[in-house]
Amino acid sequence: MTTFELPIQIGKIEYTNDWPIYQHFDPQELSQPAVIHSDLPANLNRALLEDRLYITPVSSFAYATRSDDFWLLPGLSVSAKNAVGSILLFSRKPIAELGDGTIALTNTSATSVNLLKIILQKRYGFKPEYVSMNPNLDEMMERCDAALLIGDHAIEAARRDSGYIVTDLGQAWKEWTGYGMTFAVFAVNRKFAEVHAELVSEVAEQLRASKVRSLNDLTPVIADAQHKMGGDSAYWEHYFRQLWYDFGEQEQQGLGLYFQYAHELGLLDYEVHMQLWTDNTMTRVNE
Known about the structure:
By secondary structure, this protein is α/β, with parallel strands linked by helices. It has 2 domains: about 10-80 and about 180-285, D-Maltodextrin-Binding Protein, domain 2; about 85-175, D-Maltodextrin-Binding Protein, domain 2, CATH 3.40.190.10. It is built from 13 helices and 11 strands. It has a 5-stranded mixed beta sheet, sandwiched between helices. It has a 4-stranded antiparallel beta sheet with strand order 3-10-4-11. Helix 4 crosses helix 7 and helix 10 packs across helix 11 (about 235-240). The longest helix is centred in the last third of the chain and has 20 residues, at about 195-215. The protein is globular. The relative contact order is 0.21. Keywords: Lyase, Menaquinone biosynthesis. Belongs to the MqnA/MqnD family. MqnA subfamily. One of its GO terms (molecular function) is lyase activity. Catalyzes the dehydration of chorismate into 3-[(1-carboxyvinyl)oxy]benzoate, a step in the biosynthesis of menaquinone (MK, vitamin K2).
């Protein structure tokens, strides 16, 4: 049987967007030694795909590239029913008028990059040139007609009021498809789950409990965000309330449509069939 090094590392997105899920989560309360590993989405994605991290939030697109190797934890995601507030396209003219120009892409999230490609090609028929750059808005716009930023980089750029037109990709997806968009899912390596089934269920349960407790009282999360990022409490209250942390039927359908479009455009090599971890799953892997 495969062994896994202790303490078990549990991934956490470095950006503020998943803080409510982790605010009241304490890995020391788990039955096995575990620690939180906080990192950028791209680094978490890479660690999961390279079998160096076994239970973590992960970019939805990164999960899709090897979906048969992972379970998804139910009831947990980083989604948005409408605007997301932190996945933003900055441009000099409206998105519907961008045509086939040059767009600078953040190098930190495949999900957002491919969401933009899907919207531009499937909705508007555009095939722009894409350039991957570090997430610096001024440098991006010096070279390109538009720039995509995500996470805290997007929040900071939007608060600067740079004068550019700002398109929220969560809102753009909602207006086009009628679905919210799931930007990150919580994935578990299947081989890891075979060995640590009880731990997987513990982590899922405690993260969901932390999420519920945080959303019932966002005060501690807002205070932490203000300390790190500045801004007033009303801004952060709105930011966290417009995000959605469940992963129910609607979220799964919206994400399934995203995967379908990605496959149609050749961004994914195969159709994705999402499979969720349940207590029945734990029973099966222990048999």
